[in-house]
């Protein structure tokens, strides 16, 4: 784990001293869209590449959108090794990892310094890479899923819309709660270095999960009966919760399987055609338990839980 400072890799853990033990996430640096009026990044088949970790919930969102929006033949993917240690994300041999299929780099930080040799940044995935200009288009998953949702529609003919105009304000509102208290909330709980910071995060997380559970008792999805990006953004945290966050990040007031509506909803999303293929529990567990040695110094990976995610979700009549 580390970061680039003036283009040099430094092996440093997150600095929580300045923030009273709180984990604070850095803002993403590359925020371009595809198909903008300047014509810089045109929507072309085969031009763009996604760098992902199968373990990472933020990268996972982009893989789901690539699948749902039928972009697999237009945007290829490199998958990093699940272990993220002294050199940050690495490319290497591991079942399900691909190596860097564009440059054969060893480390993900080499992509960032290829774009800017003097860059100062954390080295995160996902990365949407432009093979033509050899640069990063975007490294913010919230943007990348919107790019995949709409910027290639004319190319693919797929107009399925997970951020429909009419629902945008409702989607934005629930995204706020889910992002701060749940998606990032599990990290704020797990990476807190004081009791106070941990309790603040974990209590906000479970308050938000209760709110989601109540909402899902009368609504099929987060925003009524339409499956939107808000659901996919929540899903990638929910699917990691019982195997990882509950134990490793000490988010243990309850498990997702204790919330009947949320658990059924998570199974329904998992069962959407193509989605289960984007979920790799081996990468997920290996990444967290093996990489965060300050939380789990033995690097022992728990065997459970055993959950049948293909069992009946029972959500057909909710909200009717
Ligand atoms: N805001 C970014 C966050 C991405 C992110 O933090 N990814 C994690 C993996 S789950 C990462 O690469 N962390 C490395 C680091 O922070 O040094 C997004 O949503 O794309």
TrEMBL record:
<dbReference type="GO" id="GO:0004364">
    <property type="term" value="F:glutathione transferase activity"/>
</dbReference>
<dbReference type="GO" id="GO:0005737">
    <property type="term" value="C:cytoplasm"/>
</dbReference>
<feature type="binding site">
    <location>
        <begin position="122"/>
        <end position="125"/>
    </location>
    <ligand>
        <name>glutathione</name>
    </ligand>
</feature>
<feature type="active site" description="Nucleophile">
    <location>
        <position position="56"/>
    </location>
</feature>
<feature type="binding site">
    <location>
        <position position="89"/>
    </location>
    <ligand>
        <name>glutathione</name>
    </ligand>
</feature>
<dbReference type="InterPro" id="IPR040079">
    <property type="entry name" value="Glutathione_S-Trfase"/>
</dbReference>
<dbReference type="InterPro" id="IPR016639">
    <property type="entry name" value="GST_Omega/GSH"/>
</dbReference>
<dbReference type="Pfam" id="PF13410">
    <property type="entry name" value="GST_C_2"/>
</dbReference>
<dbReference type="InterPro" id="IPR036282">
    <property type="entry name" value="Glutathione-S-Trfase_C_sf"/>
</dbReference>
<protein>
    <submittedName>
        <fullName>Glutathione S-transferase family protein</fullName>
    </submittedName>
</protein>
<feature type="site" description="Lowers pKa of active site Cys">
    <location>
        <position position="245"/>
    </location>
</feature>
<dbReference type="Pfam" id="PF13409">
    <property type="entry name" value="GST_N_2"/>
</dbReference>
<dbReference type="InterPro" id="IPR036249">
    <property type="entry name" value="Thioredoxin-like_sf"/>
</dbReference>
<feature type="domain" description="GST C-terminal">
    <location>
        <begin position="164"/>
        <end position="288"/>
    </location>
</feature>
<dbReference type="InterPro" id="IPR010987">
    <property type="entry name" value="Glutathione-S-Trfase_C-like"/>
</dbReference>
<feature type="active site" description="Proton donor/acceptor">
    <location>
        <position position="187"/>
    </location>
</feature>
<keyword id="KW-0808">Transferase</keyword>
<dbReference type="InterPro" id="IPR004045">
    <property type="entry name" value="Glutathione_S-Trfase_N"/>
</dbReference>
<feature type="binding site">
    <location>
        <begin position="140"/>
        <end position="141"/>
    </location>
    <ligand>
        <name>glutathione</name>
    </ligand>
</feature>
<dbReference type="InterPro" id="IPR047047">
    <property type="entry name" value="GST_Omega-like_C"/>
</dbReference>
<feature type="site" description="Lowers pKa of active site Cys">
    <location>
        <position position="288"/>
    </location>
</feature>
């Amino acid at each position: 784990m580390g970061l680039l400072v003036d283009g040099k890799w430094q092996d440093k853990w997150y600095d929580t001293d300045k923030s009273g033990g709180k984990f604070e996430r850095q803002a993403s640096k590359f925020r371009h869209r595809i198909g903008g009026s300047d014509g810089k990044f045109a929507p072309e088949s085969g031009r763009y590449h996604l760098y992902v970790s199968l373990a990472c919930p933020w990268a996972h969102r982009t893989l789901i959108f690539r699948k749902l929006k039928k972009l697999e033949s237009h945007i290829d993917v490199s998958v990093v090794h699940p272990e993220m240690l002294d050199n940050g994300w690495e490319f290497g041999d591991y079942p399900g990892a691909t190596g860097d299929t564009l440059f054969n780099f060893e480390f993900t930080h080499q992509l960032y310094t290829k774009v800017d040799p003097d860059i100062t940044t954390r080295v995160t995935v996902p990365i949407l890479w432009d093979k033509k200009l050899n640069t990063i288009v975007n490294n913010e998953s919230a943007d990348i899923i919107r790019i995949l949702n709409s910027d290639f529609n004319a190319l693919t003919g797929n107009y399925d819309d997970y951020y429909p105009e009419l629902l945008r304000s409702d989607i934005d509102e629930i995204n706020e709660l889910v992002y701060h208290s749940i998606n990032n909330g599990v990290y704020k709980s797990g990476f807190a270095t004081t009791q106070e910071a941990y309790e603040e995060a974990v209590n906000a997380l479970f308050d938000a999960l209760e709110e989601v559970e109540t909402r899902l008792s009368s609504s099929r999805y987060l925003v009524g009966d339409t499956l939107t990006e808000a659901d996919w953004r929540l899903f990638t945290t929910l699917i990691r919760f019982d195997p990882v966050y509950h134990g490793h990040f000490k988010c243990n007031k309850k498990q997702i399987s204790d919330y009947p509506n949320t658990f059924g909803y998570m199974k329904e999303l998992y069962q959407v055609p193509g989605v289960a293929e984007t979920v790799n529990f081996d990468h997920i567990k290996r990444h967290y338990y093996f990489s965060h040695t300050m939380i789990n110094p033995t690097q022992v990976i728990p065997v459970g839980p055993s959950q049948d995610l293909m069992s009946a979700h029972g959500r057909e009549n909710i909200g009717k």
